[in-house]
Amino acid sequence: MRQNVNIDFLRSRFEALNNYYGVEKGINPNTSILRIEEELVNGQGVYQFNLRKENLLPWERNLKRNDLFLVTHMGFFLSIHNPAKPGKESLLSYAIRGGGGVEDFFSTTDINALYNGFFEMITGTVQNFSALPMALFKKVPQNQPSILALDDGNGTTTGDETQPAFNFLESMHTPTEQILFAGTQDHRLRVAFPTFPTSDYSANTPSGEQRITKLVFIALGFNVPGGTNPEFQTDLNNMFRVAI
């Protein structure tokens, strides 16, 4: 089902922040992103995501301790990382496996268990989601796209040179709840899905190159630099002081 998120919805979320931080304090909220990746491990079905992760890859983005982040969209994606070609991987909104050729991203279909799992999120002392179905993050186009084989000039196509077409925003979930991430708080983001000892989440490697499979959490929204300053825990900041 396609989620329709109109500009009025986004504007109302922005103005809620801007009315206090922008107008009163001169701090402009800006559109931003959080991106944290965790490597998939065969036989492991529980993954934690640390928004304040310190050792980041160049394309990851964490939550700064002094910042406040209001979420408008969030999603989980699969990716295949090639250490020899960092940053080239595509985001996948569903697990792709064909007939054993280069169009196969995963060696088996075991990773489909991800979409029978649940997402739990606690921000500070507030439990936002106790069991949000991971099936919400599986976005398979109604008309299956053709797999696009991309030749990078070496005369062959390999698993990391193919990608499915999908709409990034339509692959995200838009929470009805107002979700705030404050850099001063501990946040627990936990994904759990069925697994068994022989579960295989490894990548297909038709070219013999090393591949690492990952689960990627992405949140889009508005970031307020310095928005967790203790001075903002005042009566005037009724909407956001609880998050700080």
Average predicted confidence as pLDDT: 85
Give the count of structural domains. 1
Shape: elongated
Helical amount among residues, as a percent range? under 10%
The class by helix and strand makeup works out as mainly beta
Terminus-to-terminus distance: 34 Å
SSE topology string = HEEEEEEEEEEE
How many beta-strand elements?
11
The largest sheet is: 5 strands, antiparallel
Uncertain regions: pLDDT < 50 for 5+ in a row?
A: 145-162
Q: Provide the β-strand percentage band.
A: 25-35%
Specify Rg, calculated over alpha carbons.
Answer: 20 Å
Instruction: Specify the number of helices.
Output: 1
Describe it for me?
- The chain has 244 residues and is mainly β.
- The chain has one domain.
- The chain has one helix spanning 7-22, and strands at 30-39, 46-49, 68-81, 91-92, 118-123, 126-133, 148-149, 162-163, 180-182, 187-192, 212-224.
- β5 and β6 form a beta hairpin.
- Residues 145-162 have low confidence and may be disordered.
